[in-house]
Amino acid sequence: FGMDLQPCIDMFEKPMAFLAIFEEESLFPKATDETFRNKLFDNMLGKFPNFAKPNPRPDPDAHFAIIHYAATVSYNLTGWLEKNKDPLNDTIVEMIKNG
């Protein structure tokens, strides 16, 4: 490719970067799509060159964009937190309650 992909990798893996924020928000019971988006912007916009505001074209509902080696891709994060929650948590809690 001839491109240094390390800045994009760092954007996902560094402390208080994308995956850390996603994990933290997934564990916080009152977190919402909006709090997740706000935390991403507060912690990443202007600090990671591969993280950007979304372009309303082609997706006017996108929440953020990632500048990949091939193109800038906009993402809609609706439902990400709910999908990332561990479904075993409720089961384990019920087992402990009833055990």
Describe this structure in words.
46% of the residues lie in helices and 10% in strands. It is built from 5 helices and 3 strands, in the order H-H-H-E-E-E-H-H. It has a 3-stranded antiparallel sheet with strand order 1-2-3. A hairpin with a 4-residue loop joins strand 2 (64-67) and strand 3 (72-75).
Count of strand segments: 3
By oligomeric state, this entry counts as: single chain
Q: How do the strands line up in the largest sheet?
A: 1-2-3
Task: Indicate the mean pLDDT.
Answer: 89
| Silhouette | elongated
- The Rg value, from CA coordinates, equals 16 Å
Distance between the termini: 56 Å
What class do helices, strands and sheet pairing give?
mainly alpha
What percentage of residues falls in helices of 4 or more residues?
Answer: 40-55%
Helix count from the secondary structure assignment:
5
Overview features:
single chain; 99 residues; mainly alpha; three-stranded antiparallel β-sheet; 5 helices; 46% helix; 10% strand; elongated
Please write out the topology.
Elements (H helix, E strand, L loop, with lengths): L5 H8 L4 H10 L5 H12 L6 E2 L11 E4 L4 E4 L4 H5 L3 H11 L1
Helix pairs in contact: 2-3
Question: Gist?
Answer:
The chain contains five helices and three strands. It is mainly alpha-helical and 99 residues long. Strands 1-2-3 form a three-stranded antiparallel beta sheet.
